[in-house]
Specification:
The structure holds 2 protein chains of 2 kinds. By secondary structure, chain A is of the alpha/beta class. In chain A, about 30% of the residues lie in helices and about 20% in strands. Chain A starts with a strand and ends with a helix. Classes of the chains: A alpha/beta, B alpha+beta.
């Protein structure tokens, strides 16, 4: 499966809530059903961003079809540069409802966050130390703000 | 241009301090063993209020009041944490943005244990004329009679902004 990687500027360029809204804008076009699902978890997602878990490991979106998307947040002085380097996606992977999302979370918060998302079955939480993958079979190659080359496909 | 950098530095400092103030409050709530669901479920409203009033210069303090609903009104305060805003903390600074979680952890340790039955609320002290933010209402602080205030120091800062943490303990405890 191919993977697209994006970086979104966070604190101090945006508050944690504003950062999640920028991620929602990236993943789901206006008035789409998937957008409502993302906005419904704004408080929880904003906390994960404020705690900078989404800087340590990406949010992973697995759409029904097409490339998987990884989104990282950039914090501190690096966020200032990251803001100008943000690249929109050509597609809206979360516009519909047939997608899943994995959010990174620190071990101290994971029970609380997992319980708070129990009614949002399309969104799961994983230990931030589990790394960048929501699926062990996923290739780990990444490139900020650009398409990632799928070497496996090229070798066929 | 210099002006643009100065404006952005102030905006960045405001955002940095606002988010880390709430991050600190959540750490205190969690560290004291209180239910984190309230701050979690109100995060968006809280962050909007704090960031708006920091940006407008109206926010004087953000307070976490911990109280025991089983005790009578007027004598139900159990603990309190104040983050007092200093708008002239570091006016000649280089714009560094920083956050000291160890200072917050120290305040949690010094506060001591809090009964699990306790509840909490967040209060802002604003200068007159603050911009309206949806989701916030007016209130008054609980009495701190019989409590001693302990200053910890500055826990987060950026540009000219700083937030000074203090906690309260009951004198006879």
């Amino acid at each position: 499966m191919s993977v697209m990687v994006r970086s979104i500027a966070s604190v101090p360029v945006r508050t944690s809530t504003e950062t999640w809204r920028a991620i929602v804008d990236l993943l789901a076009r206006a008035a789409s059903p998937g957008r409502d699902r993302l906005l419904a978890v704004t408080n929880v997602a904003a906390i994960l961003i404020a705690e900078e878990y989404t800087q340590q490991a990406p949010i992973v979106v697995t759409p029904a079809a097409g490339a998987r998307v990884r989104v990282r947040t950039v914090h501190g002085t690096d966020a200032v540069d990251a803001q100008t380097d943000e690249i929109p996606l050509a597609v809206s992977p979360c516009a519909g409802t047939a997608w899943t999302m994995s959010l990174p979370c620190g071990i101290d918060d994971i029970e609380e966050i997992r319980a708070s998302l129990s009614t949002h079955s399309w969104i799961t939480v994983r230990d931030v130390t589990d790394g960048i993958t929501a699926d062990p079979s996923e290739p780990s190659t990444k490139s900020a703000g650009s398409l990632v080359i799928n070497y496996e496909e090229m070798g066929r | 241009m210099g002006t643009t950098v100065q404006v952005n530095t102030a905006v960045y400092a405001t955002t940095h301090v606002a988010t880390n103030l709430l991050r600190s409050v959540r750490a205190i709530i969690k560290g004291c063993g209180l239910d984190t669901s309230r701050i979690r479920d109100q995060w968006e409203v809280l962050e909007l209020g704090v960031s708006t009033w920091l940006a407008s210069g109206h926010l004087r303090a953000l307070t976490l009041e911990v109280f025991d609903p089983r005790r009578r009104a007027g004598d139900d305060l159990v603990g309190r944490f104040d983050f007092t805003i200093d708008y002239g903390y570091y006016p000649d600074g280089d714009g560094d943005l920083w956050f000291d979680p160890d200072a917050v952890a120290y305040a949690i340790r010094k506060q001591g244990s809090i009964p699990s039955e306790c509840d909490y609320r967040l209060i802002t002290d604003n200068a007159p004329g603050r911009p309206a933010v949806s989701g916030w209402s007016s209130t008054t602080y609980r009495s701190t009679a019989g409590f001693t205030r302990h200053a910890i120091g500055t826990t987060t800062g950026g540009g000219a902004l700083g937030a000074n943490l203090a906690y309260y303990t009951r004198r006879n405890s």
